[in-house]
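Dear colleague,

Thank you for sharing your sequence with our group. We've completed the structure prediction you requested, and as agreed, I am returning the results in plain text so they can be pasted directly into your records. Please verify that the sequence below matches your submission; if there's any discrepancy, let me know and we will rerun it promptly.
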Amino acid sequence: MSAFRVAALYKFTPMQADKALQARLKGVCVAHDVKGTLLIAREGINGTIAGRPVGIDAVLAEIRSLKGCDDIDVKLSEAAEQPFLRLKVRIKKEIVTLGVPAADPNRAAGQYVEPEDWNELISAPDVVTIDTRNAYEVRIGQFRGAVNPETTSFREFPDWFRKFRESRPNARIAMYCTGGIRCEKSTALARVEGLDEVFHLKGGILKYLERIPEHDSLWEGDCFVFDRRVAVGHGLAERDVATCHACREPLTADDRASPLFVDGESCPYCHAERSPEQRRGYAERHRQEKLARERGERHVGAQYPDPDGPL
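Please find the predicted structure tokens below.
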């Protein structure tokens, strides 16, 4: 059994997101040596945390005791090592930033589709499947035939979607994301924009990979996650994907076989954009991190995929 349990969670529910709640959540995490990120806002809570199973159970019990959070959506997986360097509990305007106040999942969102029913929906000829994640996430895996908006930030999605609608005004829309939270916002946006037949994958890719056997799956590739595991596959098993030390792009084995990949310095996606001086700086930081790991420590400047990234 793996030593650490990882909990990805979110809930849209009206919440008193103040310093008292921030301190309460931080206190229970510190008491049980749980690390990761929790974001709280007036619209709800979002985060990914990791720790020993007993610690995760304690923090989830505290979160479930909050008004409106008793049925919070949680995806559990395992990790051999603690996937987070530190704990952050933050008060935000949105628990996932779209920038469209009218797109409120507490008022209207798309229709949930269980993972077991997802294949049938996205295989229908009149359904357009849209990946609401960013381009670097989509690059290493997506559902077969899905549209890639090629965004670099979730804030770009509303403008992309409005242009997309001009070309497919009557399409039935199926949206998905890593854990479900971005789809709550994106389908709420679609409803605000006047669409009725909008669906989203309940629990996101993570729940689909957990429940659907690989031989029945329409998922192709790996699923990027916002922690040191970098990516998971069917059964939520950790995959052989790393991140570039310079640009943070996820790198498959093929990417790392490229002559443009230099461990700790550059990869095929950033090599041309980095100066020799920058690459030397990345190499030195990488060397210091390796020395710290050999001493059983964590280098203060170590970088991993941003745990504040949306699910």
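Summary note from our side: The mean pLDDT is 90.

Kind regards,
the structure core
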